[in-house]
């Protein structure tokens, strides 16, 4: 029996523009045209200004680590060979209340103890063997 595949994101009508952009290695978020709030999920009403006029817009792709966890044991199929790996919850630079949770790639295990909150990160894209593409964080250089 071969290695399990990682889950494949399934777009809904509401978040399809997000996943279509990710497939092209572009990072877009739901953005309120009235007040400029970025959201990590599609909204019907803006929680800040109560506006209802949204667009999909590309923020800088930069953020800062808000929290993270290092995974040494997983029950999630497809991630067994990645252990240990890091799940990073980071706020985008444009909106400190807009968090994107993704894996933090490219950090060697010997550097795990150098991770701290507020370290700058950038969005990158991981093309997986199962044909899916997902946004992931990397430490900013
Ligand atoms: Zn708004």
- Share in β-strands: 35-45%
List the uncertain runs.
none
Class by SSE composition: mainly beta
Coarse morphology: globular
What is the number of beta strands? 8
**Major beta sheet summary:** 5 strands, mixed, barrel
Tally the structural domains.
1
What's the gyration radius in Å? 16 Å
List the helices and strands and how they pair.
Elements: H1 16-23, E1 29-32, E2 38-39, E3 54-57, E4 62-71, E5 85-92, E6 95-105, E7 120-127, E8 133-139
Parallel strand pairs: 6-8
Antiparallel strand pairs: 1-2, 1-3, 4-5, 4-7, 5-6, 7-8
Bound molecules: zinc ion.
Zinc ion (ZN) binds at residues 32, 34-35, 37, 46, 48-49, 51.
Description:
By secondary structure, the protein is mainly beta. It has one helix and eight strands; from the N terminus they run H-E-E-E-E-E-E-E-E. The protein has one helix spanning 16-23, and strands at 29-32, 38-39, 54-57, 62-71, 85-92, 95-105, 120-127, 133-139. It has a five-stranded mixed β-barrel. Strands 2-1-3 form a three-stranded antiparallel beta sheet, with no helix packed on it. A hairpin with a 5-residue loop joins strand 1 (29-32) and strand 2 (38-39). The longest helix has 8 residues, at 16-23. It is globular and about 45 Å long. The mean pLDDT is 95.
């Amino acid at each position: 029996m071969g290695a399990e595949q990682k889950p494949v994101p399934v777009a809904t009508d509401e978040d399809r523009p997000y996943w279509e952009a990710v497939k092209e290695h572009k990072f877009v978020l739901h953005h309120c045209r009235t007040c400029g709030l970025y959201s990590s999920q599609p909204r019907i009403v803006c929680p800040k200004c109560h506006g209802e006029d949204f667009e999909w817009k590309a923020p800088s792709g930069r953020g800062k680590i808000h929290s993270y966890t290092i995974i040494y044991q997983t029950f999630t199929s497809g991630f067994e060979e990645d252990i240990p790996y890091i799940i990073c919850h980071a706020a985008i630079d444009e909106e400190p209340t807009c968090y994107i949770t993704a894996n933090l790639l490219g950090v060697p295990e010997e550097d795990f103890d150098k991770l701290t909150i507020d370290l700058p990160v950038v969005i990158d894209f991981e093309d997986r063997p199962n044909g899916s593409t997902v946004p992931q964080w990397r430490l900013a250089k």
